[in-house]
Amino acid sequence: MATDVSSSPMPQLQSVQKAMALPTVGAAVGQVGAFYTKVKGAHSLLEWALSTAEAGVVRAANTAAPYVAAPLAAGDARVAAVLDELERRVPLVAEPPKVIVETTRQAVMSRISPHVNKVYTAREAAEQRVHSLKELSWAKANALLSTAYGQKAVHSVDMGATYAMQLLDHYLPPVGPQEEPGNELVAASSEPALHTAQTVGRLTAVAARRVWANLAYKVNELRNSGVELDVRRYITALLAALHLANVTSQQQQQEQEQTGAPPQAAAEPAPAPPAPSKHAPASAPTTATQLKTTPEFKSTETSN
Q: Would I find 4Fe-4S among this entry's keywords (predicted)?
């Protein structure tokens, strides 16, 4: 770069000359050399350091040249042969960088284009199939809703939507300026399926807007009255209450385990002997009973 190559006793390498002859390598080396020169001239200290390094490299190369001449020549010949073979097999490497980039892009596009075309063709076919299925389903739905039972179903949907709108007007009246969906609905006689879809969609949109509008209105009323709704504080208090209840139940369980099991109930009295049954057979008469029935006992009792 800043060193004069012609004054150096180093032999000229054929492989380096062949590589520098390639436009791509020459352009890359030129870009690197320009950047190196720019960095070197940015500051005097950098210029001195890089110049010193260059001088050291040149001195080391000159010193080692006699010892590495033979191996270097053999390696140079092999690299030169490889470069010649590369130029023979890939002539594109000898072209300028712009030609290489354009040729590579065309080659890649020629390889990718058939696959891309297949993907686009498949996507178009799928879209057409979906569109045809959608039209077929829509036509079948219209045909089904055009029957007598279908017309009754459409009429029921309309009546239900009307009743639902009345309930919304009663319980969730419009608050403030709201853009209500238009009433431009397709006639049920011409497109019953589309008419049903529009009716349900309109009812859903009105309900969603009414709910959020009334909720926002109530929240603003609470804020205006001095009640601040802090969701985070509410959740924190709820979690604290749950934690307190859990800790209390654990303490109660520990106290029960420490005091032991509750005292056993008093022993129940022994059951009374069963009363003699009326139908039980009479037991044998005792000796006293037999004596009372004798004539002597009766005469004695009479005299007394």
A: no
Q: How confident is the model over 146-205, as pLDDT tens digits?
A: 888 888 888 898 899 899 989 988 888 887 766 666 667 788 778 888 888 888 888 898
Q: Is residue 79 part of a domain?
A: yes
In a domain, 142, yes or no: no
Q: Is there a domain that residue 119 lies in?
A: no
Burial class (CB in 10 A: 0-12, 13-18, 19+), 10: middle
Amino acid letter at 141? Answer: A
Number of Cα atoms under 13 Å in the Cβ half of residue 71: 5
Instruction: Provide long-range contacts, Cβ within 8 A and 24+ apart, for 157-164.
Output: 157/196, 157/199, 157/200, 158/188, 158/199, 161/199, 161/200, 161/202, 161/203, 164/203, 164/207
- Both tokens of 250, joined, read 């654990």
| Single-letter code of the amino acid located at 13 | L
pLDDT digits (tens, 9 = 90+) for 260-298: 655 444 444 555 555 554 454 455 555 556 556 665 555
Rounded to the nearest integer, the mean pLDDT of the chain is 77
Decide if 275 is inside a domain.
no
> Residue 188 corresponds to which amino acid?
A
Query: Which domain covers residue 31, as residue numbers?
Result: 14-95
pLDDT average, residue stretch 236-257 = 87
Helix intervals (H) in the chain = 14-21, 23-40, 44-89, 97-145, 148-171, 192-224, 231-259, 287-292, 295-303
